Structure prediction request, 317 residues.
Amino acid sequence: MDSLRFDGKVAIVTGAGRGLGREYALMLAARGARVLVNDFGGGPDGSAAQDTPADDVVREIAAAGGEARADRNSVIDGAGAIVGAALDAFGQVDILINNAGIAGGGWFPEIPPADWQRMMDTHLEGTVRMSRAAWPHLMKREGSHIVNSSSSASFGAPFTSHYSTAKSAMIGLTRTLAIEGHGVGIAVNAIMPSAYTRLTAQIPDTVLRDFLADHFAPVRVAAFVVWLVSTRISGQVFSVGGGRAARVMLAEGEGAKAAADTPEAWAAAESGVMGMEGVRMARSMVEELCDTLNGMGPEGAAVAARMGAGDAWEPSR
Prediction:
């Protein structure tokens, strides 16, 4: 198999001074990409900038013969400047990896509003602003790609409600941007990475923490992500870590119909509502609605047909 190369490509990697972002930047640069290494340099909780890790990664890349530039803007209020720095240095943007993130936890009623907002701003708003700033430039490049960072916390995780909420939002954002990006040549995917970084090093369970350190090196996620941005796969979410990757899907069961529009009728239909037989995996809101319409007789099927049978990949522009 030929080696995957990114010669002539330009990548922006946010939060690239340490951990996963550092590995993305190093691997892309080693394979020919020019990389804008962005890192605010703040603490794990999003506190004020403490050092300049982006410069360290750029020096590593340069020492290995690659080309990179450092950027220390925040994804929250500096997205335009980050994209501008890539354009000033390299003239284009082909790949955006939205990796910047922070950690934090607490019981839901006790998380301070400021902590909640900082989590939303960094993970969700930062991703939105970076993607908006890069979008018109990605449209100009053949085979462009965005990778967003979700988390298995989207399945539910105690004492991280703000983190889980922000990371869950990545799923809907990614799937929607993939639909909109289809017509303009931008592939968009998300990953749920598991890796030992300075954020997961805060896990209190020492046995789990030590196992992560031994078996979940960030490079094991980076190898998958670098492969992903070489493909035209789009609209997908992947769980990645420890040398394993799996596609993650939103799914619904076959469902049930109530005999009448009463709470009692729904109580009688509970087993059908809760069952997962005939599981369906819609690609979009329209496709999910068309699945429902097609089960409502000829009239419903006619409405679904009018909607294009739920075609998720030809957005109106």
